[in-house]
């Protein structure tokens, strides 16, 4: 198949002419009726059009992000591994942009044209319709009946909506000459917002992982501390005859002095009330010899519990387990 035959076959494909007709119809409806209280319907139509055109790219992104989020919630220490995978895909996305640079740039111009047409209450779009109306009426060179002028007004809107479609058709024709298939070319041309999101996604995951909120159970209320996200839930644990105020701490990631990254499992901790004896890890004082009449706190006045388990994330830092008191 020659290049001309390939281009002709792609232009005749249902994806190409169907997309061009849909784009033309959306432009016609937006220019003619969006300013008359139908803006919501026009925006819904544009959103549906973009969803259809970028469906393959969108489903792939959602499936990948959903799988990473699901697996990281089942096994939180593996979140860092998934971040590394995300960075690898980030690098591959750079290669994707380089390979499709011309078509992505064309897509940017298409978005820019439609933005300026519809922005500022369609100021520029209205001027384009007015210019097209002067063209179809020959600048009112002849006296026309009201019915004919009304018909030509709709024709002017149709012509104004078709001009950007011709630009899109030209960009796609250039892509077909480079060997693109119609479906892939349309996805790349209108998929620029998804490409931008795919670049930002790994960085959002990195920020979420290291503040402990993206891949851990943050369903409880909490506060941010230098060593991670601490969830809180008021409660009391008995210590002798007096209740000790405690709170629940969700699992979180933290950095170790050796440069590694550890995952601290969910646990219960006392509220910071400044009373040493209320600390759950308090084992009691170690009295020193002194005057016989000198009072001292009784040994074992505190309630002893084990501290949270801390797991070192595989592949990062030293392979060890430690206890936090």
From TrEMBL:
Domain of life: Bacteria
Residue ranges of the region described as Disordered: 274-325
Keywords of this entry: Membrane, Transmembrane, Transmembrane helix
Low complexity bias: start-end ranges: 293-308
Transmembrane stretches, start-end: 15-34, 46-68, 74-94, 101-118, 151-173, 185-204
The protein, known as: Uncharacterized protein
